[in-house]
Write a structure and sequence with these properties.
single chain; mainly alpha; 2 helices; 0% strand
């Protein structure tokens, strides 16, 4: 392989590493934003469920089904938050992995 082909291949691989790292960082950022939004929604739903439980306990003005539905919705949102946090951690780990590979390449 002549030097110009080798140089182009090296440049291509470097660009691929950069794009890969950027992709994983953007994926991590997106997942963190989704987790944050899910947390905000979960807080609102949890407050709603708490209020419904209070009303149910104090004077029975809401039905048990409404309380159960609010609790189910809060559990669903909590699961979504956990999933988004897991995706963020995985994407961040992959971005770090790419960075570590780059560092090893530079050290050679």
């Amino acid at each position: 392989m002549d030097d110009s082909v080798e140089q182009r291949l090296g440049d291509f691989l470097e660009q691929a590493r950069i794009k890969s790292k950027e992709f994983y960082l953007k994926a991590a950022q997106s997942a963190v934003e989704q987790a944050y939004e899910g947390c905000r929604e979960a807080i609102v739903i949890a407050r709603k469920a708490t209020e419904q439980l209070r009303l149910y306990a104090e004077n029975g003005t809401v039905s048990r089904e409404q309380v159960d539905a609010a609790a189910k919705e809060a559990a669903h949102l909590t699961a979504k938050v956990a999933e988004a946090a897991e995706e963020a951690a995985e994407a961040a780990s992959l971005a770090v992995s790419v960075e570590l590979k780059e560092q090893k390449q530079r050290e050679k």
